[in-house]
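Run: sequence + M7G -> complex structure.
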Amino acid sequence: MGCDEKRENAGGRLRVQDIPALTQDHCRMRDPAKVERIINEFVFGGPERMQIVSDFDYTITKQRTEDGGAVPSSFGIFNACQSLPENFKAETDKLYHKYRPIEIDPHMPIAEKVQYMIEWWTKSGELTSGFAFDQSEIDQIASKYKHALRDRTHEFFADLQRLDIPTLVFSAGLGNSVVSVLRQANVLHPNVKVVSNFLQFRDGLLDGFQQPMIHTFNKNETVLNETSEYYDLVHTRDHIIVMGDSIGDADMASGVPASSHIMKIGFLFDHVEANMEKYMDTFDIVLVDDQTMDVPRTLLALIEKQHKLSLEAVKQSSL
Ligand SMILES: C[n+]1cn([C@@H]2O[C@H](COP(=O)(O)OP(=O)(O)O)[C@@H](O)[C@H]2O)c2nc(N)[nH]c(=O)c21
Ligand SMILES: [Mg+2]
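>> structure
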């Protein structure tokens, strides 16, 4: 961990080159001066100004496991359930093959894609209707993947709970799977909120997904209802760590005030060479094949260390 950083320069500013976790080869930054500026804002502002917004699939779960076993996405966990109708898998696969290329098409404007994504999630919801289903099926499959979370995820969520930092897990996937994995991994603390698509039931049968629909292009803080409790909790917290594995995840904090300081951390694993340029342009810190929570934990450790010093100073001055 990066707790042995030095504060040699004037004013006690932290320097990137003194934070070991950020000087590792696989930790890349387009603009280290910007990263340094944000870290110092975070440390100066303290935990009470922080919030975390994280993607779930392949951000909280690993992109690569030690045994090489694949980790399913949240929709994948649902699709593996035994009691789904016979044609369910084939029909949702058809949708995937139609809409996935549109979702990742580098040429189509986002405004045009949005209509297609609404169509995709709507049709998927229609297929997820009209049959009985028990959450325990998801729980059973999810239990196999509770160990597929990044190394030190448990510690990371414990840090966030101890520092009382609101943590939003955003997923355009299936919320029931996300919650099930997080709960079984014992990281679903009271400061953690999952915003995603949750199964809806009517008269004992599945009836698609609950509103609001979360799709790839509205997966950001603009979907947080301004009257919601979570909005109340975070709208004054203007120091934000955003974590994701897809380019679109970098926008998860859009909707927060422009004056906010946002540190975007991107986990890059697939096609490293081809994707590097775009990830470097999009994220402040790009972590290449890093299957741990060590870098976000380093940021929290720096914030906590200064926080403790400040508390100590207040205590001393009141003696
Ligand atoms: C409606 N729908 C969307 N997806 C995919 O699920 C992803 C969920 O999006 P995400 O929450 O950004 O998760 P990620 O970390 O996996 O990117 C989308 O990007 C879609 O590609 C879907 N995948 C499956 N298997 N089945 C579906 O019905 C379905
Ligand atoms: Mg992801």
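>> summary
Residues 1-10 have pLDDT under 50 and may be disordered. Residues 55, 57-59, 245-246 surround magnesium ion (ligand 2) (CB under 6 Å).
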